[in-house]
Design a protein that fits this description.
With about 400 residues, the protein is of the alpha+beta class. About 25% of the residues lie in helices and about 25% in strands.
């Protein structure tokens, strides 16, 4: 009797299962319960202890891949975020914490995300004209989310912008960004200064403690035939960095400006210079926000980018527009041949184009502050330039900067 009472809940499960079949029988005995079903093995329950065969109940245990993946991923993300939280706490206390660098497997996993396809879809969505009544709510939500200052826009009326693309590429009022005339080089865009300084050992810092290869970023130096070099014939450059320094007493400097989604999306010429060559690197479109830049080494070398190279008053000068997620479209106003974020490309390839020709021996002359190009959303501008060794940046890492403000002095 006691064993029957203990087995009552289990009997309910069994009966519920047995009622769904045509041939089954249930036999109760004094010392236990025995039930059977066609096509299944017999199972005995004796007393308070029992042996259960899950297959006879149709309760086979199955591993659900999606559930396992979500559980594993959630656990890993939780562990990772906890580690980052601990790092932030140490940084607040004044300790220097080394960045957490992603390994090759993590980078490869990130690259499996179809960011190029998503970016093309986002680009097409940006060109869809919105109904007049829907423009203000959509744009107002974007303005509130990313802190856009529409008082600086040449046209403040949100109904004027037919689609998201026009809104992203909005022009500013002429007086909103005065160009500094007393300094030789200015910020090409609104954004945040990620890093700056002198290039050392052919390595450039994308953020503090995380570097990328100068040669990988710019590619083989085959464009020098379009740039007049003032180096002596006796000079024997020992590395790629030395090849870029064309004048004695000069050094190579860099500056990284990150454009957030709420920033002004156009970029301008940072100085008076001559653009002689364009090199387009197809590639991934991973996020370039400061958190990811601290996590993935050589992030800017993985991503699609357009390198403009030439000369300024002090030697070599280059401006690189780096693509990012939802920013596959990089536009250079004077280059109608440039096409970015194409559906197919060869990994590690690049496309060269020379602006120097028989009809244009000087290339493209740009004046400081002149419109140069635009992104569809936030991204990154990397400046690499030669200057006298006494050049100093008037910046600090992490500061906000606006187009037209000075970067440094000599």
């Amino acid at each position: 009797m006691q064993s029957c009472k203990m087995s009552a809940p289990l009997m309910k499960v069994c009966c519920a299962r047995l009622n769904s079949t045509n041939s089954c029988w249930l036999l109760l005995r004094k010392q236990g319960i025995r039930w059977s079903q066609e096509g299944s093995q017999r199972t005995f329950f004796k007393g308070s202890g029992f042996r259960l065969n899950p297959a006879s109940l149709g309760l086979q245990s199955r591993v659900r891949p999606l559930t396992l993946l979500v559980a594993t991923g959630s656990g890993y993300l939780g562990y990772d975020q906890y580690g980052r939280y601990k790092d932030r706490e140490l940084e607040r206390k004044g300790f220097e914490v080394p960045p957490r660098i992603a390994n090759e497997a993590q980078v490869a996993l990130y690259k499996t995300i179809p960011t190029r396809l998503l970016s093309r879809a986002w680009g097409r969505l940006n060109q869809v004209d919105l109904p007049t009544w829907l423009r203000k709510p959509i744009f107002s939500l974007y303005i509130w989310t990313f802190g856009v200052n529409m008082k600086e826009a040449a046209v403040e009326d949100l109904h004027f912008y037919r689609n998201l693309g026009e809104f992203f590429r909005r022009k500013l009022k002429p007086q909103a960004r005065p160009v500094c005339d007393s300094h030789c080089i200015i910020s090409p865009a609104d954004g945040k200064i990620l890093h700056f300084g002198r290039v050392k050992n052919c390595e450039v810092e994308q953020v503090k403690g995380v570097t990328y290869s100068l040669e990988t970023f710019l590619g083989p130096q085959t464009w020098t035939e379009t740039i007049a070099l003032n180096r002596n014939e006796d000079d024997d450059p020992s590395n790629f960095q030395d090849l870029l320094v064309t004048k004695e007493g000069n050094a190579l400097f860099h500056c990284v400006v990150y454009l957030a989604p709420g920033d002004y999306h156009c970029f301008h010429s940072p100085t008076d210079w001559r653009v002689a060559h364009r090199r387009h690197f197809p590639g991934s479109l991973m996020s370039v926000n400061p958190g990811v830049a601290r996590w993935i080494k050589e992030l800017f070398c993985h991503n699609e980018r357009v390198v403009l190279s030439g000369e300024w008053a002090h030697g070599f000068f280059s401006l690189t527009a780096v693509g990012a997620t939802n920013v596959g479209s990089i536009r250079i106003y004077f280059d109608k041949e440039l096409r970015t974020n194409l559906p197919r490309y060869s990994k590690g390839s690049f496309n060269d184009f020379s602006y120097v020709s028989n009809n244009n021996a000087e290339g493209i002359s740009m004046r400081k502050g002149e419109h140069l190009g635009e992104f569809n959303l936030g991204s990154t501008i990397v400046l690499l330039f030669e200057a006298p060794k006494d050049f100093t940046f008037d910046l600090r890492a992490g500061q906000k900067i606006r187009y037209g403000e000075p970067l440094g002095t000599m």
